[in-house]
Write a structure and sequence with these properties.
Distance between the termini: 39 Å
Shape: globular
CATH superfamily: Cupin
CATH class: Mainly Beta
Strand content: 15-25%
Number of domains: 1
Bound molecules: fe (ii) ion
Largest sheet: 6 strands, antiparallel
Strand order of the largest sheet: 1-10-7-12-5-4
CATH architecture: Sandwich
Order of helices and strands: HEHHEEHEHHEEEEEEEEHHH
Oligomer: single chain
Length: 295
């Protein structure tokens, strides 16, 4: 069994990774959390099977189709898909479930909070520490799920905890944006798994980093970092997008590059808290729509 590993003191995490804008992979950070031991299709089916959830399908052209279904039905479809895949059927012969993607899980099912611990205080700015769980976005989906190359829309820092299954993250620094076929504010057309160098000749010479996260691992991804994410197995994970005073102020430098109005608004709310020090409890209700914002 993997032991919990976190040997970075507060100053080195803040300066060497958050401050220096470098990704960090912490092995086994959450291995001992109950969520890592308990969460899975059966656990969710027993507790919340009758609930209605909204899932997403990512189409080739970049459109995102929203679907609504009973969680129990979704989980049955997920199990069926993984059974068919493990029996050797090709992915295109199986009915692929959608992706339960980017959902504020602790607001939907607050009873799940008993399964998680608080993050070490040095990992998050003080603004987020008390109510960190309000900012959590949850992901559950089948093996082979792909989120194409993008950066996180508010240009926040991102802490992701992998709960179940493995994912491969491909990371490229913000300086690569203009070489990766930017299409809209945060989406990019180059496929790092099979880059088309005729279409994207400037991609050649970039040096993407690939990281495989396993259950219990924590991944820190700096603001503006491009990431392409593929699930190698059926996966559960969650992340927190957070700003620091520096990242929120910096985000406005990109306002002229097609930043959506909603992003400007959510970053303005974050600025009121992180820079002007208005209390988090007063601001959260204005920020909360971000957790269901699809962009
Ligand atoms: Fe992302």
């Amino acid at each position: 069994m993997e032991t919990r590993y976190f040997a970075i003191d507060s100053s080195s995490f803040r300066t060497d990774f958050v401050g220096a804008r470098l990704p960090l992979h912490i092995k086994g950070y959450g291995s001992q959390w109950n969520a890592s031991k308990l969460w899975g299709a059966d656990y969710f089916r027993q507790r919340f099977g009758e609930s209605s959830i909204q899932t997403k399908r990512f189409e080739r052209g970049g459109n995102i189709i929203l679907e609504r279904e009973r969680l129990g039905d979704y989980l049955d479809g997920l199990d069926r898909f993984e059974r068919e895949r493990s029996s050797g059927r090709r992915p295109d012969q199986c009915e692929r479930p959608a992706y339960w993607h980017d959902v504020p899980i602790f607001q939907i099912f607050p009873e799940l909070l008993k399964d998680v611990q608080s993050f070490d205080p040095e990992l998050l700015p003080g603004y987020y520490r008390k109510n960190w769980h309000q900012y959590v976005q949850f992901f559950m989906g089948p093996s082979g799920s792909v989120t194409k190359l993008h950066f996180d829309t508010l240009r926040t820092h991102n802490l992701t905890l992998q709960i179940q299954g493995r994912k491969v993250w491909t990371l490229l620094p913000p300086a690569s944006h203009e070489k990766c076929g930017r299409t809209r504010w945060r989406w990019f057309d180059v496929d790092p798994e099979q880059p088309d160098l005729h279409r994207f000749p400037d991609y050649e010479g970039l040096k993407p980093i690939t990281v495989i996260v396993e259950p219990g691992d924590l991944l820190y991804v700096p603001p503006g970092t491009l990431h392409h994410v593929r699930s190698l197995d059926a996966c559960i994970s969650f992340n927190i997008d957070f700003h620091t005073p520096h990242s929120v102020l910096s985000s406005f430098r990109f306002a002229h590059k097609g930043m959506p109005r909603e992003v400007l608004y959510f970053n303005f709310i974050s600025l009121l808290g992180l820079v002007l020090k208005l209390p988090e409890r007063a601001l959260f209700r204005f920020y909360k729509p971000y957790l269901n914002y699809v962009s």
